[in-house]
């Protein structure tokens, strides 16, 4: 085949095809040359920028007093001066907790502060909880026996009044005079994982402190597992805290405090191998101010006996939580007391009280513990389960005075 003629011009007529191809190369490769030049410019600019930053950083460290370099130094410092330190343990020591709590601790003795001969007949331990001298002990003062309180530091005070709380079984004593009160911890916000300590003061032995751990916040001291032993009264707080220490009887009445030095409760029984039982301070805190005024101990009354379903296996048709109203056989007591606030509200046997003022009756707080927080005469709304139906009843709480 005859090769095709390539158009020519006066300038290209005498050039071969290969010559013409290479002659056309500049029209193809010139943009590449320009792109290469631009890339080289970018590389040089970045290198100069990095070098300039390094130079400014060096100058800022070399000449710290130059103002504008100081601005550069501060902006660069956070990335270069990161120091990691282990968080310090700010928990108070045992000695610090004891020193905070000790001024509120004492021992009750038989006798008077004015006795010439120092009394030596020990009655029990006491913890001061108000600035006007109201304290708490687990031993009930017998009628006609004069007591004095020997507070840590050597202060002696006569006990002017004593009364037993019908709801918790602890006793309040009044010791007139300025005191160092111990703050009461809020049981609802109690962190069981925190550190706790049992502390007592004895005039002969001084201050004794042992670390403790709360292993249960809903224990009960039951005589047996029979149904009648599970029946509770709405006016008696039967739940207890349990700590992991099998203490001797000399610790009965000692204070259980948290690491902030707040009173969690009072050791009620100390001899069990399973650990000591503690009455939570939240359950009698409300009575302190009234008793200090001389009004005695006044508790609210609903008037029912019940089985806490958190402790018992309920029948299939009952709720899993709540206060199941049932009669007590010995001593004989109906599920709903006659002429009681519960009877006035229309409560019946086999009803289940599931909440008081929307606060649920459950494994955290039983019916008696919830009612312990209400003043006598308060109007409350009860949530009731009755035969599969949910009801709402209102009543006004009565009162019981010690």
Main features:
8 helices; alpha+beta; 7-stranded antiparallel sheet; flat; 402 residues; Thrombin, subunit H; Pdz3 Domain; 3 domains; 23 strands
Structure overview:
With 402 residues, the chain is α+β, with helices and mostly antiparallel strands. It has 3 domains: 1-84, no CATH class; 89-296, Beta Barrel (Thrombin, subunit H); 298-402, PDZ domain (Pdz3 Domain), CATH 2.30.42. It is 22% helix and 29% strand. The protein has 8 helices and 23 strands. It has helices at 17-23, 26-62, 67-80, 94-101, 227-230, 287-293, 341-345, 367-371, and strands at residues 105-110, 122-128, 134-137, 147-151, 155-158, 161-164, 171-174, 196-202, 206-212, 214-220, 231-233, 239-243, 255-258, 263-269, 277-280, 298-301, 305-308, 323-325, 352-356, 359-360, 379-386, 389-396, 398-401. The strands form 4 sheets. A 7-stranded antiparallel β-sheet has the order 5-4-1-2-3-7-6. Helix 2 crosses helix 3 (67-80). The N and C termini lie far apart (132 Å). The model is unreliable at 1-6, 8-33 and 71-80 (pLDDT under 50).
Please write out the topology.
Blueprint: H1 17-23, H2 26-62, H3 67-80, H4 94-101, E1 105-110, E2 122-128, E3 134-137, E4 147-151, E5 155-158, E6 161-164, E7 171-174, E8 196-202, E9 206-212, E10 214-220, H5 227-230, E11 231-233, E12 239-243, E13 255-258, E14 263-269, E15 277-280, H6 287-293, E16 298-301, E17 305-308, E18 323-325, H7 341-345, E19 352-356, E20 359-360, H8 367-371, E21 379-386, E22 389-396, E23 398-401
Antiparallel strand pairs: 1-2, 1-4, 2-3, 3-7, 4-5, 6-7, 8-9, 8-13, 10-12, 11-17, 12-15, 13-14, 14-15, 16-23, 17-18, 18-19, 19-20, 19-21, 21-22
């Amino acid at each position: 085949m005859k090769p095709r003629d390539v158009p020519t011009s006066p300038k290209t007529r005498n050039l071969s095809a290969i010559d013409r191809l290479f002659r056309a190369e500049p029209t193809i490769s010139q943009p590449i040359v320009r792109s290469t030049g631009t890339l080289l410019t970018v590389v040089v600019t970045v290198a100069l920028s990095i070098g300039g930053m390094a130079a400014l950083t060096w100058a800022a460290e070399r000449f710290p007093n130059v103002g504008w370099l100081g601005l550069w130094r501060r902006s660069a410092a956070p990335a270069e001066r990161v120091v990691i330190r282990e968080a310090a343990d700010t928990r108070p020591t045992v000695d610090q907790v004891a020193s905070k709590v000790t001024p509120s601790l004492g021992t009750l003795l038989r006798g008077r502060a004015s006795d010439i001969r120092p009394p030596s007949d020990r009655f029990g331990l006491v913890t001061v909880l108000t600035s006007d001298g109201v304290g708490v002990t687990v031993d009930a003062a017998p009628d006609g026996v004069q007591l004095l309180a020997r507070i840590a530091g050597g202060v002696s005070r006569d006990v002017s009044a004593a009364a037993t709380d019908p709801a918790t079984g602890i006793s309040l004593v009044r010791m007139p005079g300025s005191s160092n009160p111990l703050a009461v911890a809020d049981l609802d916000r109690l962190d069981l994982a925190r550190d706790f300590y049992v502390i007592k003061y004895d005039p002969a032995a001084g201050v004794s402190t042992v670390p403790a751990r709360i292993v249960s916040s809903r224990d009960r001291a039951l005589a047996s597992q029979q149904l009648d032993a599970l029946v509770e009264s709405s006016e008696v707080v039967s739940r207890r805290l349990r700590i992991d220490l099998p203490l001797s009887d000399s610790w009965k009445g000692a204070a259980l405090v948290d690491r902030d030095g707040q009173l969690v409760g009072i050791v009620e029984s100390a001899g069990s191998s399973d650990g000591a039982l503690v009455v939570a301070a939240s359950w009698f805190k409300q009575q302190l101010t009234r008793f200090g005024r001389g009004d005695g101990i006044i508790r609210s009354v609903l008037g029912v006996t019940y089985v806490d379903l958190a402790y018992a296996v309920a029948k299939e048709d009952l709720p899993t939580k709540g206060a199941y109203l049932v009669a007590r056989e010995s001593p004989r007591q109906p599920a709903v007391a006659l002429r009681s606030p519960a009877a006035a509200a229309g409560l019946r046997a086999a009803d289940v009280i599931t909440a008081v003022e929307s606060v649920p009756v459950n494994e955290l707080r039983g019916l008696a513990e919830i009612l312990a927080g209400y003043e006598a005469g308060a109007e409350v709304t009860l949530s009731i389960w009755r035969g599969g139906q949910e009801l709402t009843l209102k009543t006004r709480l009565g009162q019981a005075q010690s």
